[in-house]
Amino acid sequence: MVDVVSSDWLADRLGDVRVVDVRDGWEFDGIGHLPGAVSIPFDRFRSADGDVGMLPGRDAWADLLSGAGVAADDDVVAYDDTHGVFAARFLVTALLYGHDSDRLHLLDGDFSAWNRERETTTEATEVAGAVYEITDPAETPLVDFEAVEAALDDPETVIVDTRDPAEYEEGHLPGAVNLDWRELVDDETRGLKPRDELDSILDAAGVTADRRVVLYCNTARRISHTYVVLSHLGYDDVAFYEGSLTEWEARDGAVVEG
């Protein structure tokens, strides 16, 4: 499973994992980064011209990670400075291109949380040579338009809109519940809320581990964070609608307001 790791966990393993910083390049160079981190800015792996949804395409992804010295068998920890939402997108992209989920980790908190207590650097990281080989995952959480449409009438499935309440009110999939991804993070610590709080929030929304969960937002960025959180909490039946509302509306899927 993709999991969420603490700064203590990472500090003990900095020499054994590949740390990926997905902030803008100027932040990586100018503000500083975690020791040993490599820079793979979010806009480098976000493309509407690649595979389904906003995935960058297999060749583009392989070239990008190879150039950053990341191999397909590396243990990877990703971080950003936005509560993990962009880093989570990186990790889910890696998962969808066959990276072992047990080797994918989201740093709890983000750069700012790390920077409060630990060393950062502006020194360039030496990038080792690597050839990133994409494989087809044995299982994929991806679901398409038809699968989501069929799930609307399934009482064992909960459709989850991870956008903010105002967006949800403007229009959402029929029967979808609203669970803003930011509800799961603590603004002060910049990391996930305590487990008991997370369970309470998820239970209140009807998002429970005994149900199938289908996630969507607008362009699959925000659902990446919720996907990682649910994976970390042990949910084992979580579907990822990569096309999200962008594709849904383009294909005239039903949308309700209010």
Query: Helix segment count?
Result: 10
Radius of gyration: 18 Å
Task: Calculate the mean pLDDT score and round it.
Answer: 95
Total domains, how many?
2
Question: How far from one another are the termini?
Answer: 35 Å
Q: Could you give me the name of the CATH homologous superfamily of the largest domain? A: Rhodanese-like domain
Main sheet summary? 5 strands, parallel
Strand order of the largest sheet: 1-5-4-2-3
Instruction: Give the low-confidence spans.
Output: none
Report the helical percentage: 25-40%
Write up what this structure looks like.
- With 258 residues, this protein is of the alpha/beta class.
- The protein has two domains: 3-117, Oxidized Rhodanese, domain 1 (3-Layer(aba) Sandwich), CATH 3.40.250; 145-250, Oxidized Rhodanese, domain 1 (3-Layer(aba) Sandwich), CATH 3.40.250.
- It has ten helices and nine strands.
- It has helices spanning 7-11, 25-31, 58-67, 85-96, 111-117, 145-151, 165-170, 195-205, 222-232, 244-250, and strands at residues 3-5, 18-21, 38-39, 76-79, 104-107, 157-161, 177-178, 212-216, 238-240.
- The chain has a five-stranded parallel beta sheet with strand order 1-5-4-2-3. Strands 7-6-8-9 form a four-stranded parallel beta sheet, with helices on one face.
- β2 (18-21), α2 and β3 form a beta-alpha-beta unit.
Using brief descriptors, characterize the structure shown.
32% helix, transferase activity, globular, 258 residues, Oxidized Rhodanese, domain 1, 2 domains, transferase, alpha/beta, five-stranded parallel β-sheet, four-stranded parallel β-sheet
